[in-house]
Amino acid sequence: MNLDLNAVVSTADRMMLVETFVRIVDAGSLSAAARLLETTQPTVSRRLKTLEKSLGVRLLQRSTHAMKLTDDGMRCYTRAKELLAGWQAFESEIRGAGEEPVGLLRVIAPHAFGQQQLVAPLAEYLARYPKMAVDWTLHDRTPDFIAEGIDCAIRVGDIPDPSVVAIRLGEVPRIVVCAPAVLAGRAPPTHPEQLAALPWIAVSSFYRNEVALTHRQSGETLRFAIQPRMYTDNLYAMRSAALLGVGAAIGSSWAVREELDAGRLVQLMPDWEAAPLPIHLIYPPARFYPARLRRFIDIMKVAVPQAFGILPP
């Protein structure tokens, strides 16, 4: 490490260099990062070189037409994202201590969760902060936060976009269920591969023509093909079809709990489960987060696991 250089680079300057590096990677080029940071490309290039000299490693391999992270660059990027998120949270906490949120919070929530389970924590937020209003929109895509003016989104599943901040709220267990009529005349399956002989309902957002199940004790995972009689991207439509005996399906445990308790559905192969689905709250990176968003995040961190009885993050 270049100790002489580090001696003259202040902590604030180092944070600026780290943020510049992250923006370069997220944006895909120096020029795009310069636009995001509202500065010039030579300035961004100079900051990158200063950071590389300070760390004593090469972070990016650049040519006329391409830019690629080095191994050191990949490690640096991962840690830099964590560092920025921590610093931003620190700034927000110090600046906004005691600040009461006022205004409109715009949230995108999943169709399945946003109609019922998430309304209770939303109501808690509104009761706690009477000067707030919430625009509660239900759809299952990741929004363009800046273009659409969205504060945050709640997403089910993995978050492939590295340019957003993602807070993991928990994981939803998923199980195999069907109506008793589906098993009429059939012996209950004793091995996951026997499930392939059943009619199926596919939840196309998560599985279509193949299913993977994992044994809860041994960790063994088996994959097998299915031939769905129905495809849907809606959890409630799947549940309704399962109740009518259309076929077996994999569903979130919270969504079928009442039907299982009432005997309208039965769980198949209870020792085998599909991979749990993570729930994230995501939002765009920023220097400072308004109180309306910070308070909403605080409530959701506690309320979402309680609402679904799900595994903590």
From TrEMBL:
Keywords: DNA-binding, Transcription, Transcription regulation. It holds the Pfam family HTH_1. SUPFAM superfamilies: Periplasmic binding protein-like II, Winged helix' DNA-binding domain. Transmembrane segments: none annotated. It comes from the Bacteria. Residues 19-70 form the HTH lysR-type domain. Belongs to the LysR transcriptional regulatory family. This is LysR family transcriptional regulator. It comes from Massilia aerilata.
